[in-house]
Amino acid sequence: MSTPTPLYIGFDLSTQQLKALVVNSSLKVIHTSIFDFDADSHGFPIKKGVQFNEAEHEVFAPVALWLQALDGVLEGLKSQGLDFSRVKGISGAGQQHGSVYWGREAEKMLQGLDAGRGLEEQLSGAFSHPFSPNWQDSSTQRECDEFDGVLGSREELARVTGSKAHHRFTGPQIMRFQRKHPDVYEKTERISLVSSFLASLLLGRIAPFDISDVCGMNLWDIKKGEYHEELLKLCAGSFGPEDLKRKLGPVPEDGGFHLGMIDRYYVDRYGFSPDCAVIPSTGDNPATILALPLRPSDAMVSLGTSTTFLMSTPSYKPDPATHFFNHPTTPGLYMFMLCYKNGGLAREYVRNAINEKQGNPSSSAPGGPWANFDKTTLATPPMGQKLDSDPMKLGLFFPRPEIVPNLPAGQWRFTYSPSTNTLTETEDGWDHPTDEARAIVESQLLSLRLRSRGLTESPSVGIPAQPRRVYLVGGGSKNRAIAKVAGEVLGGIDGVYKLDVGDNACALGAAYKAVWGLEREPGQTFEGLIGQRWREEEFIEKIADGYQPEVFERYGLAVEGFEKMERAVLGQKQ
Ligand code: XUL
Predict the structure, then answer these.
(1) Which residue is closest in CA terms to ligand 1's atom 9?
(2) How many C-beta atoms surround the C-beta of residue 209 within 10 A?
(3) 65 CA to middle of ligand 1, Å?
(4) Domain-wise residue ranges, the chain
(5) Tens digits of per-residue pLDDT, 497-541?
(6) How far is the CA of 34 from the centre of ligand 1 (A)?
(7) Could you give the count of Cα atoms lying within 13 Å of 214 in the half-sphere of its Cβ?
(8) Which one of 97, 198, 338 would you pick to mutate in the ligand 1 pocket, going by the greatest count of ligand atoms within 8 A of its CB?
(9) What is the Å distance from ligand 1's center to 226 Cα?
(10) Closest ligand 1 atom to the C-alpha of 306?
């Protein structure tokens, strides 16, 4: 009998669920198991995976919930008949920025797990604090102001750590925690990120941070590859930076590093092989760029409730409006990220207004409830310009307060004439809500083009800088009208593609990271190994043309008007 081929697990510990994806060495998905926090957990007063303290703008998750979920998701794989003994390696993705506070007995409890009893029962007492602050938390304005100020400016903080201070970033969160709960902080032996917490459970000891996810803390000096002393000092307050550094632990540089073998608990309880290796888990956004062999000039746009734009790039050009992280696998590369609060929800408002006016499309219409929105978008010329001499229609549509740029909820409509460089705030000439279908898609894409333009390169002489390919993932990637406009606005010399992995991109990226960590030849990059095994025809689909010179140039003029419009609106709010 031939030896069974190896399998790899990628976990995704996100806000609302824990998912496990099992792949083989050819990158094919064999099993998927999901533990949905609201639907499948018992004993936690959660809503969409989290709890709230609205008075203080706190959002947090009970850590014991995740213990219950890990056994639950493994039980799910067991009931599907997974032969755990074939699993050679595991990695994971965790919601970024969240922190877990371990008590003094944690290591002992992790090392003494009994396979006859569940993780929740045995580890609920391992934490000095039972909750993990969540990335949706916004309780840290005071701490953010201090972080932004301590090195002289937000620009300088962004230059050092890759981002200006953000409410959700772990440094400001830890700082507030140590102020609010000094006794608990004092009794905290170690602090994990959600990603390293997951790896710790699997290893049976506290795992180090991942080289990419550590950049979501506002504490890591990216260029120097070490914690920034002054930021540690600020964060730790009277407890001092040395104690905090010890609580945070070391950070191995290699994203494919073997942390060690899976804990005995999983061998005895589920039948894992004692030789199954644990590879560092990373953040969910860094894991997303590992769902395909993304090349440095490719862009990924994740069109979910919010919009994220991800690029892998050799250029480090930090700015307070954007994020830079170390690349999760490839030294010398960085992950560039834009993170918007308004994405799918904002488009849905316009879609509903259009359906109200035009009548709901039949449920069998291609595009479903989006049929009218799509038709209207495609029937409207770029920027609503019927004639070249017409002014461009540009707008901002934020049903929720936005981070990029930092503006309260609101809607603003303008016209812009590039020939005279005239920008006017007006609703004259706007046909509501018809003109808004194309305008909202353009508005979201123009913002991406504006903020990524310093990172793209010219593909060949005479062709303007742009991404090579644009990959769309997430719910909105099904929408062909958005794909078409994405190609027109962003370009993409090789076209616009859909990565057909549904909501699985981060778990898949984590599983691929495990494959790479275990099967790489010495010196072989992630992109090299995954690129060799990647079956393009099966995994992606070209859904729209990319670069079209005339319209790309026209949107180039629109970007200038768009930038002016943002500045005008920001000016009104000051
Ligand atoms: C990124 C961020 C979110 C979470 C979602 O900075 O806060 O995308 O990672 O889990």
Answers:
(1) 96
(2) 26
(3) 19
(4) 7-285, 297-495+545-574
(5) 999 787 899 999 999 999 999 999 999 999 999 999 999 999 999
(6) 20
(7) 28
(8) 97
(9) 23
(10) 8
Q: What is the pLDDT of residues 417-443, one digit of tens each?
A: 999 999 999 999 999 999 999 999 999
CATH 3.30.950.10 is right for the domain spanning 297-495+545-574:
no
Beta strands in 443-537 (DSSP E): 470-473, 496-499
Choose which residue among 12, 15, 95 to substitute to test ligand 1 binding: the one with the highest number of ligand atoms within 8 A of its C-beta.
95
Question: Among positive and negative, which fits the CA dihedral 495, 496, 499, 500?
Answer: negative
Tokens read off for 57: 């703008």
Classify domain 7-285 at the CATH class level: alpha beta
Give residue 341's pLDDT band: very low, low, confident or very high (50, 70, 90): confident
Say how far apart CA 312 and CA 334 lie, in whole Å: 6
Distance 284 CA to ligand 1 centre (A): 7
Span from the CA of 285 to the centroid of ligand 1 (angstroms):
7
Give the per-residue pLDDT at 305. Answer: 78
Q: Which amino acid type is present at position 370?
A: W
Same topology, domains 7-285 and 297-495+545-574? Answer is: yes
Specify the pLDDT at position 176. Answer: 98
> pLDDT tens across 460-502, in order?
999 999 999 999 998 888 899 999 999 999 999 999 999 978 7
Q: What percent of the chain has pLDDT above 70? A: 100
Query: Model pTM?
Result: 0.94
Spell out which residues line ligand 1, taking CB within 6 angstroms.
Answer: 14-15, 95-97, 135, 168, 283-285, 339
**Ligand 1: residue whose CA is nearest its atom 7:** 135
Tell me the residue type at 138: S
Measured torsion, CA atoms of residues 101, 104, 106, 111, in degrees rounded to the nearest 10: 150
